[in-house]
Amino acid sequence: MINLMSAMTLLFAIAMIGAAFVAIQVKQISIAMLAAGLVSLLASVMFLFLAAPDVVMTEAAIGSGLTTFLFFFVLGRVRGDKND
Amino acid sequence: MIKRFIVLLFLLALGLIFTQLLVEYIPDSELNLTAHYYAEHTAQDIGASNIVTAIIVTYRGLDTLGEVTVLFLTAAIVGLLLSKGNYKGKSLQRQLPQSGELLTTGSHLLVPLILLLGAYVFINGHLTPGGGFQGGAIIASAILLILLTDPLRKFSHTLIATIEATSGLLFLFIGVLGMIYAGGFLDNRLLPVGELGTLFSAGAIPFIYSLIGLKVGAEFSSMLVNLSETEGS
Q1: CA distance B195 to B209
Q2: Which site among A10, A41, A73, A79 would you substitute to test the B interface, given the most B Cβ atoms closer than 10 Å to its Cβ?
């Protein structure tokens, strides 16, 4: 059971680092935003593994929910302005 | 080249610090003194099943007041910075593409459910994980969904400001009442502690957390609405 838990944690940690790397490296802004949201989502799962459900709710609602959508919102406004 | 080298050096140093922390880390085999006190006394003294809520709202209630104040200041500053463009933007009628059918229908279905979930989370803050801040953020995400569906929709600033101000004042008022009728500022034993695990238990915690939830939700919503109403597209 403990081994399964550590394996899952390791998997999520690697996925988090991968998503963070994608967020930095990728050229399209929208994919970078989604990857940054994915980092938050995976972080909230990690918090769940660490038995902190209160933090999970904050991270999932603000980190991966509000922030990602806010990025898209602002991206839409900026694009509408500059026509690029 | 030198810039990259410095960045790499910083990353290595950071990695070294974290590795050292990780290597020296030994998980506690038992709770320390403060944690032990909280684990032992929360159920009798505060009456909340969720110890995190008992700490946030009662034991460390003053810190929560500070957090709420910080959030209020942030919302106020966002409103101040963005208020300049508000009136110019109205004359230029924006030409926005129609929101998709999927988004419109989906948001009509989801917004009431998300609002309900937010209210559930902050009303049950003393029983289940989550509380005022989480519930407020969930409510604000429902507002964001409405704004995504219909970016030109107008929200009443007066209503948002009234909800925010009223809940903030009532929060402080309950705190002061605790000082007069119970053990101190924000003491929850203003009301009977009640039976552990029921909705109306843990004294004033459900009321305080509901007020915090409304306040946080109104603050986040006011930020989103301000951002949506600025000129620029």
Answers
A1: 18
A2: A73
Q: What is the DSSP letter of B204?
A: T
User: Token pair of A51, please?
Assistant: 């038995």
User: How does pLDDT run across B196-226, given as a tens digit for each residue?
Assistant: 767 777 777 888 888 888 888 888 888 888 8
Please, where are the H alpha helices in A1-84? 2-25, 29-49, 53-58, 67-82
**What is the value of pTM for the model shown?**
0.79
How far apart CA A13 and CA A5 sit, in angstroms, is: 12
**Does the structure's ipTM exceed the value 0.90?**
no
| Number of C-beta neighbours around residue A30 at 10 A | 11
- Nearest-angstrom CA–CA distance, A14 and A10: 6
Count of Cβ atoms closer than 10 Å to residue B143 Cβ: 25
Backbone torsions φ then ψ of A52, nearest 5 degrees: -125, 70
Residue from the list A61, A74, A76 with its beta carbon closest to the beta carbon of B138: A61
Q: What share of chain B is helix, strand, coil (3-state, %, to 5)?
A: 70, 0, 30
End-to-end C-alpha distance for chain A, whole angstroms: 52
Which of B216, B229, B233 lies closest to B74, judged by CA?
B216
Q: For B99, which DSSP code?
A: P
* CB < 8 Å from B in window 5-44 of A: none
Question: Taking the domains of chain B in order of start, what are their residue ranges?
Answer: 50-84+100-229
Helix (H) or strand (E) holding B198: none
d(CA A63, CA A33): 12
